[in-house]
TrEMBL record:
Source organism per UniProt: Cucumis melo (Muskmelon)
Cell compartment(s), UniProt: Cell junction, Plasmodesma; Cell membrane
Keywords (A to Z) from UniProt: Cell junction, Disulfide bond, Host-virus interaction, Repeat, Signal
Family: Belongs to the cysteine-rich repeat secretory protein family. Plasmodesmata-located proteins (PDLD) subfamily.
Residue runs in coiled coils: none
Xref: Pfam families: Stress-antifung
This protein's name: Plasmodesmata-located protein 7 isoform X2
CDD domains, A to Z: Gnk2-like (cd23509)
Record's bilayer topology term: Single-pass type I membrane protein
Signal peptide residues on this chain, from the entry's feature table: 1-28
Length: 276
């Protein structure tokens, strides 16, 4: 693995093809929100690449029966170790979760080709991998902030918004939803956080939403390990966590593995065309 000279080894956010929706829609679970890659790269056909392909395949397979999971691959040397996780939005069904993760992994492969770390947030799911362990580590760094247009201080709307956000802070669990009239709110922590860490992260995200977005019509605050969102004039699109039975089909699994294989082929094609 060879780092680029004079470049920080952290995720560089890329907002290419950015598309923002002020509230969730199940028909748009694969809409791109943000993505980032580390500057550190691995060598083609290396042990790290083999481990990465194995990790991504495991993430895609696991998403057919679980909405969250994390994996650690210990390589033959410390530089080949790999850590990764995925998480789906708490209200997604297992088929939607599996579809979202498969698409996220495919997009991440194109976005972060040959890099040792990457993260991608879609509307319905999140995927991250790195050669440095981040599992179980609280991270309240602001990754993305988005505030809608100010509507001025509408006492009723702002009062309901503050009440909804307050209820999210006072709730428990990794996925939290709330609403009052047209005001809707949602918050979610990455599954590797403890209950107290999740509470701390959500509180930070909501505090920043209120201070940074002011009287905005809607707001998004994505931190490193959690997010909070609200919309004051949207339909009640947030729903409670999905508790359906795990769903697994041969078609879903086969499609997921095909996507991984396609991603590997694309990376190899890019190397040949670039002459390395």
């Amino acid at each position: 693995m060879t780092p680029l000279p004079s470049q920080p080894q952290h995720l560089i956010l890329l907002f290419l093809s950015f598309s923002f929706l002020p509230f969730f829609s199940l028909s748009a679970i694969d809409t791109f929100v943000f993505g980032g890659c580390t500057q550190l790269r691995y060598s083609p056909n290396s042990a790290y690449e083999t481990n990465l392909n194995s990790l991504l395949t495991s993430l895609v397979n696991s998403a057919t029966y679980s909405s969250y999971n994390n994996y650690t691959i210990q390589g033959s040397s410390p530089q080949d170790a790999l850590f990764g996780l995925y998480q789906c939005r708490g209200d997604l069904s297992m088929p939607d979760c599996a579809t979202c993760i498969a698409r996220a992994v495919t997009q991440l492969g194109g976005l972060c080709s040959d890099t040792c770390g990457g993260a991608l947030q879609l509307e319905g799911c999140y995927v991250k991998y790195d050669n440095s362990s981040f599992l179980g580590v609280e991270d309240k760094t602001v990754v993305l902030k988005k505030c809608g247009p100010s509507v001025g201080y509408e006492e009723e709307a702002m009062g309901r918004r503050d009440a909804v956000l307050g209820a999210l802070v006072g709730a428990s669990g990794g996925y939290r939803v709330g609403g009052a009239g047209k005001v809707q709110g949602v918050a979610q922590c990455v599954g590797d956080l403890s209950g107290s860490e999740c509470q701390d992260c959500v509180g930070e995200a909501i505090g920043r939403l209120k201070s940074d977005c002011g009287t905005a019509d809607f707001g998004d605050m994505f931190l490193g390990k959690c997010y909070a969102r609200y919309n004051t004039h949207g339909p009640p699109v947030f729903s409670k966590a999905h508790h359906g039975k795990p769903f697994l089909t041969t078609t879903t699994t086969t499609t997921a593995i095909s996507l991984i294989n396609l991603m590997v082929m694309v990376r190899r094609h890019l190397r040949l065309s670039l002459g390395y």
